[in-house]
Amino acid sequence: MSLYRIEFNKRVKKDFRSINPQDIQRIKTAITYTSINLT
Questions:
Q1: Can you give the residue ranges of every domain in the chain?
Q2: CA-to-CA distance for 15 and 23, rounded, in angstroms?
Q3: Is the pLDDT of residue 6 over 70?
């Protein structure tokens, strides 16, 4: 179970590193937009 979790975390980090800056900006915008809508 813990080994699986470690492997999963590695994969997520690798995927996160491969995200291009435009996607990060889009994610930030989406989060901000969602926060505005919630309040």
A1: 2-38
A2: 12
A3: yes
